[in-house]
Amino acid sequence: MIRGLTTIMLFWVLGESLHFLTGLAVSGNVLGMLLLFAWLLFRQRIDLELEQASSALIAQLSLLLLPGGVGLFFLGERMSGQWLPLLTAVIVGSLLSTFICLVLMKALVARKESR
User: Fold this and answer.
1) CB within 10 Å: which end of the chain, N or C, has fewer?
2) pTM of the model
3) Nearest to 36 by CA among 14, 65, 58
4) Contact 58, 13 (CB under 8 A)
């Protein structure tokens, strides 16, 4: 599992470095995730250690996202006129990401069954 966490951290650092060096409008976290995704597509397999580490992180995802959500409550006065756009963005983003995950999962299951 340590090797899997190291792999995840390595791609995070690569993404942050790419963001810093290029000044892209995409955050280093997202760039690192895209690099990891491209690497996994290239290899066509996932190591057991990486699978275990990512599963452990996904199980704790609510704890990783909680500080950002709590931070919104401390911006109450600044956010007073922004609740409707914020709520709309959260709902639309959640529905869109759920839909994309469902379509992707259906395609991947169909692809695996055809093999």
Assistant:
1) C
2) 0.60
3) 14
4) no
Three-state SS annotation for 34-71: HHHHHHHHHHCCCCHHHHHHHHHHHHCHHHHHHHHHHH
CB 72 within 8 A of CB 87: no
- Residue length of the chain: 115
The predicted-structure confidence for 46-60, as pLDDT tens digits, reads as follows 888 999 998 888 888
What DSSP character marks residue 115? -
Q: Give the integer Cα–Cα distance in Å for 13 and 103.
A: 30
Q: Are 12 and 25 in contact (CB under 8 A)?
A: no
The whole-angstrom separation of Cα 66 and Cα 71 is 9
